[in-house]
Amino acid sequence: MNWLSQNLAWVLLSGTAVIALVAWQRYMSRAENQNSAELYTTQQYSPAADDPVTGDKVGIAHATPANFEGKTYFFESESSRAVFQQDPERYVHRHHRHHDCC
Q1: Could you say which DSSP state residue 1 is in?
Q2: What is the CA 90 to chain-centroid distance, rounded?
Q3: pLDDT tens string 76-95
Q4: Which residues contact 96 (CB under 8 A, 6 or more apart)?
Q5: How far apart are the first and last CA of the chain?
Q6: Strand partners for 67
Q7: How far apart are CA 82 and CA 88, in angstroms?
Q8: What is the DSSP string of 20-67?
Q9: Which end of the chain is more exposed for a tag (fewer CB within 10 A), N or C?
């Protein structure tokens, strides 16, 4: 008898085990993806923005907005918005100050 006929049962058993493990891993991965999608759709999601004057995170739903150069900026308070409106370019272009060109 050759090797394959002597070990055919073990070869089939290990092949079945590998297929079962791959199927189980795919099933669990799909279940995790469905659970994470449910979390994102059921959670209360409130986008946030940075207040250009203070640098603090501000929930857009509760922020005080102002427009400048076609863009909407969000502020944590009316006083922060008033400071911005006095000199908006100072706060809008703040991140460019390290450049020599602008």
Answers
A1: -
A2: 30
A3: 999 999 999 999 988 887 65
A4: 102
A5: 84
A6: 72
A7: 10
A8: HHHHHHHHHHHHHHHHHHHHHHHS----EEE-TTT--EEEGGGPEEEE
A9: N
